[in-house]
Design brief:
The protein has three helices and eight strands; from the N terminus they run αββββββαββα. It has 164 residues and is of the alpha+beta class.
Amino acid sequence: MQRFFRQKAVMSVCMGMFILMFSACAMIGQNDPPRVTLSSVKIQDINLFEAVLHIEMRVVNPQNVSYDIKGIDCVLDLDHIKLASGVSNTPTRIPSLKSSVIPLTVYSSVEDIAKCIKSLKGKNAVNYNIKGKLYLDGGFFKPSMIAFNTDGQVSLKEFMDYKF
């Protein structure tokens, strides 16, 4: 009888540690996720079927541990219209409490570009949204992927006044 209670106690302690360990894993990386913002956009190539854009995204690490990023997947929208999407497998290490810029090539169809240009007519500013996933070198206590979703606004006034 005493053996039965001892086995039950050991099983209860193991189960409690198991639950505690997995709840701690779920919390890591969720308190202060990295902040991802659009740093620059440059047109690389435009042809009859698609446009190729080079974008740079700044990733700010507010954590007290470094992030080892394996890759990134993102979609860029202008005024709720999809402009471009792309992936990158450029490995980047972001030390704790620092930031880094990650280059990324994204692709847009001519149809998506036409929709975006049409939506910009007569506007002084454009809202953008960039969303996606950062793929991390996960570990036993680290997440392997963190989603991000960032909104911002860009003034078109300076662009319209620019003499080509």
